[in-house]
Structures are given as structure tokens and as C-alpha cells.
Amino acid sequence: MEIAPDFFDYFEAGAVLLERDKSIMAISSWNDNGQRQYVHDPLCRTYNFGEHGSSMGQFFNRYLEPIKLNDIQVNWKSMDLSYLEQDKYMEHFTELLKKATTVAGYDSIPANTDDIRILYYDQENFERIARQFGIFEEWKDGVPRTAYKGVVAFRYQTRRNVFLVSPDSLQQFGIKVLRVMGSASKLGKRKR
Q1: Among 119, 164, 170, which residue's Cα sits nearest to residue 144?
Q2: CA torsion sign, 12 to 14 to 17 to 22?
Q3: Whole-number mean pLDDT of the chain?
């Protein structure tokens, strides 16, 4: 495993958050495309260069090899990370979701849009969308891998955030569910 130049500074700054906010379970240097109930940065601070290990190479070529290790030194100690504390983070994440443009699916992403939001309706629909973006399709305990309150967030085409959201997850964030017509039906939208 290789580590980024700011690996230790990242954890030192994260330790302050961990001590201050008891709702944070861990600080992680790994991001396999989204979040759970721990603090992570969108850029990986570690890189796995071997394809043999606990997954026996099953995910390496498709998911792990393309990940870029952060190579920029970030001064984490000078940053205000208080927005990552539970109450502030919910506000912050809700605002990101609200500002994201809702699109019907992968084929409907406009070139000139910032963050986007795509609705998934069930596991099969989620897996189909995830495959199109090349992210983990895995589903654990009734939710997608890496989901934060049912939302899978990842970067796509530079700095753009993509949020894969279920109707239930939008309701948890107090966001009205808008039905989007178009290619969502091609992505396996559940028929009513």
C-alpha cells in the first residue's frame, strides 16, 4: 500500500474531529466512491497496488487500479473542518443535494451542469446505474455500498458530484421527490 504525502496530517486533523463529535465512527483514508458514517476526503490517501488480497483480485482491475492516489500536500491543520460535525454536515450535505440538478439517468447528463442527482428506485435499478458509472454495485444490508442515508456520492468528470438517491433518502433530507421523465425508464424504473 502506498500513502499520500499528507496522509499523517490528514489523520492528525481528523483526530480532533473524532474527539469533538462522538457521532463520528472513524476517520478513513480510503474512499471507494462514497460515504458511510465516517469522515473521508474524496481523494484517496492510500493506494492498493497489488491485486491479491482479501478479495482475491475480484475488484482490483475494475475498481481499485483506476483510483488515483492524492499527490498534493494539503495543510489539514489550517482548515476549518467543523462543517463535518454531525449537525453541520447534515446541513451541508442537504444543501449539496438541493443544489444538484436532477437528471433522468446516465444518458441525460448535460455537459454544462455542475452537481447532478439521479433517482434510483430499487436494488436492480441502482445496480444498473452504478454499472454505467463504473462504481461499486454492491448492496449490503438493504442499502448500496458506501451510501450515506441511502445516498451514494462520487465524483464524475473532474469536480462534479453525482448523487444516486432513493425517494426515501431524499425524504430523510427533507427534499421533495421530483419525477423525471426520459431515460429513467430505460434504466429499469419500477413500473407502477
Answers
A1: 164
A2: negative
A3: 78
